Amino acid sequence: MALTTERSGLVTTSKRLAGFIAAATASALFITGCSAGGGESDPSQAGTGGTPKTGGTVHMLQNADFSYLDPSRGFDGGVNAFYRLIYRGLTMQAAGDAKDPNAIVPDLAESLGEASEDGLTWTYTLKDDIFFDDGTPITSQAMKFGISRSWDPQVGIGSPYLRQVIDAPEGYQGPYVSGDLPTIETPDDKTIVFHLKKPFPDFDNVLAQPNAVPFPEGTGAGDEFIKDIIASGPYTLAEYTPGSSITLERNEFWDEATDDVRKAYPDNWEFEIGIDAATIDERMIAGQSDDKNAISGTVSAATLPRLQTPQLKDRAITADAFCTTYMSMNTTKAPFDDVNVRNAVNWAIDRSALVNASGGTQLADPAFSIIPPVVSSFKDFNLWETEGDKGDTEKAQELLDEAGLSDGFEFTLDIRSQPLMQGRAEAIQQALEPLGITVNLNVIDTSIYYETIGTPAQQNDAAITGWCPDWASSASTIIPPLFDGRNIFEKGNSNLAQINDPAINDRIDEITAMTDVDEAKTAWGDLDEQIMGLSPIAPLVFSKGIFLPGENIAGYYPSTNLTDLTIIGLKDPAKG
């Protein structure tokens, strides 16, 4: 995840901040966070045929660098997928080719957690023979230390769920500032016990988040993990040139007997960074040399007509939309502190133009809710229903008149420095121009985009981003991080609209406390509609993806949320 659907350079449409949580650039690989899909899928789902063989090097071509190597800082679809190669947690999302790739399964833990009768205590037992990349055993104390880093005000800007769910003392600021976290107990080297603020049945999902990973005690302070890592997964860092390349090599202390998900077929991974999107498409189509052994992000709209030859059709794979691309509006600043202004923007936006700017109907559908259709809580509604999804300037003008802004206004829109984002922003400019609304674009480098807009002191009036649910069983990882006014942070903030409405906050608490799963699912959908009535955001599109892996790639099941790199390999390692 997490922002979600358009958060990292690998994301094709957020994450996450996230969930902070991935939507689409032609060069990105995954969508948001920023991790799961909607229900069970057939393991024979579209994917590259054949079983990978051990050996060789898989290449990844991408436009932008990962947000962070440090999993306590990063939280978007692209980097979350990368983290699975180098880090392990107590639990994790199932393999991409599993019958239910969205299921949560044990990882470093022997089993999923054992909850107390009151739901406030969860206990896990670590497996035997698990080690860091220097041969140091992974203990419950290392697990606790790694997790407690998420409370550090500088380091812990990634996934928010640990901080929201675990009952840390008031004012706790992580191990470097505050020391021990007493609400996580380690009675012995293999047992770890978590004390929660209130019952949270999805706690196994929380521990599958990218920041719930172990580190040796005392490591990772400040910028230590900016250019280096301490791996617990099947690969470790061999070389990193920021903005240019990353090379991973095998972690000799990873034991496949302890890992039921990661297959780790390649000997090495090579990430080629900073490549123009059009160049990536050209290289993937040509498939020369090492590009036969490469994967990349979604194919750009301009390239789609070229995929009509039988050879390319056979290689192309489509992934359904999982994330929502949207424009946040800062409700704490004029003119977006007026609900009439925000609603006027939603009425005026031409979502058919946004679909076209996203590559057409093959790559996007218009969005009117924040919850995407793949999530079980989805409610099909449209509060701004217009003919052909083209917007209604007259209705928008009426609302601006009520707000005393008949002649329009001017605002600054933050966007990522990628062609797709530019196209979407221009579609919004064109839709609002007849109302006298001037949209000034503030283009931010992709590698720092989510950190920038997630810092309220740095964000402008509005931002285009996206969000992927972190698990698909409900909208509990969509509505609270994006719209709960108690979840507005100085850094790592995902409530970009900064809406703090007591009615929304109270309803979030009521739904979270529901024990009837079906009742809660329905309630989240109803709350989505209630929130959209206040227009803190403008939903734009649900982004789909078409991918073109190299002809020697096997085990590739692309996702617009979290492509599982750990099961990808080569059909013939001798060619790689």
Please tell me about this protein's structure:
- This is ABC transporter substrate-binding protein.
- By secondary structure, this protein is an alpha+beta fold.
- The chain contains 15 helices and 22 strands.
- The strands form 6 sheets. A 6-stranded mixed beta sheet has the order 15-19-14-18-16-17. It has a 5-stranded mixed beta sheet with strand order 9-10-11-2-12.
- Helix 8 (339-348) runs antiparallel to helix 10 and helix 14 (502-512) packs antiparallel against helix 15 (517-532).
- The longest helix is centred in the C-terminal third of the chain and has 16 residues, at 517-532.
- It is globular, with a radius of gyration of 22 Å.
- It starts with 16 loop residues before the first strand and ends in a 6-residue tail after the last strand.
From the N-terminal CA to the C-terminal CA, the straight-line distance is: 30 Å
* Derived structural class: alpha+beta
Q: Assign an overall shape.
A: globular
Q: State Rg.
A: 22 Å
Annotation, overall tally of beta strands:
22
The parts where pLDDT drops under 50 for at least 5 residues are 1-45
Pfam family, one: SBP_bac_5
InterPro entries: Peptide/Ni-bd, SBP_5, SBP_5_dom
Domain Solute-binding protein family: 104-480
Organism: Microbacterium luteolum
